[in-house]
Design goal:
Layout lengths: L18 H28 L5 H8 L8 E2 L2 E2 L3 H14 L1 H21 L2 H12 L5 E4 L15 E5 L2 E12 L6 E8 L2 E8 L5 E5 L11 E12 L11 H35 L1 E2 L2 E2 L4 H29 L5 H25 L11 H11 L6 H13 L5
């Protein structure tokens, strides 16, 4: 019977999906196989984000997929997770683009924006006609968003924004940035448009991770923001933190795809690689390592599916998301590193996917909350005491 089991889905998680969820998964999987994977090796090597994929992801309804209306697909949370999983099987850079557009830009506009803001931005972003980025992290702050120095002050009917943001996905290709800043009235979100005087985006070069993704810094020098561009629905850190919860949820699914890609690669390699007269897949040491990868992927799949079902019931706790992001990122990182090692000298070549996924996951395990941050979030839940 074991020969009938899918090594990338040992517990048959697929059977727990609805017909619609399976259709989403299969559609995105075909897109990744046909359009994404063939591009990603060269894109990674050239430090280039394949922008032609923006319109194709939009045409499939992958941008803002969980939003109802505004030309969005209105899919459930599990479907969004499956989208992230399949995209990251291709490359973390593309999944990051979709995550930022969907969870960090379209989500806050939908959750906290005015109807005018929703009508202006959400359909355009769903169609890929406008790209967004999310400005929260600052060079000095990192894991402490409450220490942000970017600030805005009222000036008549407008706001004057000053400061900077760092490590921003989509920075230099964005038509608008949802930027969080301190004000005398609390923490507010501002929709900063690319042509506003005093606003500048600079790309960060020389990255060895997420090379097939645009990463940059944002600078604000007395940028005048009209009141119509301020998100009216929130004035505390709850706003940006709720966005991070959405993004962390998608990451919890996404990294499973990266891990599956690595396991799939080494399963094929170890059956073909012959040493000392037999395929290395026939040795105990390799089988134990492959079994460990399978154990970690299976655990991550079950954790993500349960998290998605909780989210779709409207009962999600940020602590639950932290546990999944922590566990699944760590599992994917360990799998990618071990897959690279099993490949031996070939493992450092981009001809094989583990080295690319391994390098990408160094960023994924860091952004939207480091592993330590998520451990402390869970620790606070368990003890009732914040150790931050």
């Amino acid at each position: 019977m074991s020969s009938n089991l899918d090594p990338l889905d040992l517990y048959d998680v697929r059977s727990e999906l609805s017909d619609d969820e399976v259709m989403v998964k299969e559609t995105v999987a075909r897109f990744v196989d046909d359009k994404v994977i063939p591009l990603m090796r060269e894109a990674f090597e050239k430090h280039d984000f394949p922008r032609e994929l923006i319109q194709e992801t939009a045409a499939l309804g992958l941008l803002g997929s969980s939003i109802d209306g505004y030309d969005c697909a209105g899919l459930n949370s599990v479907s969004y997770g499956l989208i992230c999983q399949e995209l990251e099987r291709g490359d973390s850079g593309l999944r990051s683009f979709v995550s930022v557009q969907s969870s960090l830009v379209m989500y806050p506009i939908h959750a906290y924006g005015s109807e005018e803001q929703k009508q202006r931005w959400l359909p355009a972003m769903a169609r890929g006609e406008a790209v967004g980025c999310f400005g929260l992290t600052e060079a000095h702050g990192g894991s402490d968003p409450g220490s942000m120095k970017t600030h805005a002050k009222r000036d008549g009917d407008d706001w004057i924004l000053n400061g900077s943001k760092m490590w921003i996905t989509n920075a230099t290709i964005a038509d608008a940035a949802v930027v969080w800043a301190t004000t005398d009235e609390g923490v507010k979100g501002f929709i900063v448009e690319k042509d506003m005087p005093g606003f500048e985006a600079q790309e960060i070069e020389n990255k060895f991770s997420l090379r097939a993704s645009v990463t940059g810094a944002l600078f604000f020098d007395n940028v005048r923001i009209p009141e119509a561009n301020v998100l009216p629905g929130v004035s505390t850190l709850r706003g940006p933190l709720s966005c991070l919860t959405q993004a962390r949820y998608g990451i919890s699914w996404g990294v499973i795809g990266a891990a599956q890609a690595c396991l799939d690669e080494v399963l094929k390699y170890t059956q073909d690689r012959v040493l000392f007269g037999r395929p290395i897949a026939n040795t105990q040491s390799i089988q134990i390592r492959l079994a460990e990868m399978c154990r970690q992927i299976t655990t991550a799949q079950l954790l993500a599916l349960r998290l998605g079902r909780i989210k779709d019931k409207g009962e999600l706790s940020p602590t639950q998301v932290s546990l999944a992001k922590w566990n699944n990122c760590r599992a994917a990182m360990d799998i990618a590193r071990d897959a690279r090692d099993i490949l031996g000298g070939a493992g450092i070549s981009a001809e094989y996917v583990p080295i690319r996924h391994m390098l990408n996951l160094e960023s994924v395990i860091t952004y939207e909350g480091t592993e330590t941050v998520h451990q402390l979030i869970v620790g606070k839940e368990l003890t009732g005491v914040s150790a931050f």
